[in-house]
Amino acid sequence: MTESVKYREFVKPGINENDLSQVRAVVADVKHVFEKVEVLEGIQAVHKFGASSAKVQAVLLGHLEDLGFTSERKGLFKDMNVAGIRPDYYMPLPEGGILFEVERGKTIANNMDLLDVWKTHICQEAKHLFLLVPNIRITEKKKEQKIFASVEKRVGTFFLEQTHPIDVSSVHLFGY
Description:
Layout: E1 6-11, H1 17-35, H2 37-46, H3 53-67, E2 70-71, E3 89-91, E4 97-102, H4 112-122, E5 126-133, E6 137-138, E7 144-145, H5 147-156, E8 170-175
């Protein structure tokens, strides 16, 4: 991982700037986590063909907990018919918390990015999504998949003026 972590923000029109400033402060803290050598090297070591997102999560766990995130928070969807789902990480905020999802190999093939937006949409305690995806994924046949760019296009469609609104105030896309 020789390049720095990519970042893109999508914001729903009309969002209160004070609420968004809290989220952006957390974004800045997360960016600092990705500047740490042990994090960059740790992610690089596990970002291999066939590896799971759980290995990337393990690299980040202590760092995100230090920022106030809880890993695998239960009960966020208790009033839904999908009560058993959990985000990778969750941080409460007064005007709507943050779900933080880590994806790796099957981000696009299994629509995991869209599932993460949906989870944020239905979560009554979260209004913001932090989504960490690979910049590039090498397939079994040694082809490059541009995951960050694909997710950026797909998630961006939720924030176009001509689309119907979703109940997600912002998505913050990080690429490793």
